[in-house]
Amino acid sequence: MLKKINIGLVALVLGFGLTITTSAFKTVNHSSKVDKQWNFRGNSVSEANDQTKYSLTLPSPTECGSDTDLPCYIITPESVDTEAKLHTYFMTNYGNNAALIDGDAPERRDAQ
Fold it and tell me: What per-residue confidence (pLDDT) applies to 59?
């Protein structure tokens, strides 16, 4: 009887060992999605729906956070990485409504 218990314990320990070993070597996907910040370069709220007034490469205007007139930037999913995709994003999410796009900006700045 003691021999049967020992065999059962050995089988149990091997089972746990196999489970721990296989789960310890799973690959972890560390890539996380990074949203895009489109910096608004326009001079009026009516331009907020014009994708050509935004830039991924030019820095945010320095007056960001200083007023409520214009959007400073908008945040989009990482896949929105061209002006054409930005236009599609505007049409899909805001119906190309400049006031809605303007209202969704996380920070604001003075009109120039």
Answer: 86
